[in-house]
Amino acid sequence: MPVGQPVEVEVYIEDLIILSQSCDLANDKIQDVILAQVLDWQVASAELVKQGNLFARSKQFRRALIAGNIPSLSLLHKRDGIPKLGWSVVDFHRVFVLPKPVVTAVARTAGSRLRLRSPYREYLAQAFARYFMRVGLPLDANAFETEGQV
Question: In the chain, where are the structural domains located?
Answer without folding.
Answer: 16-132
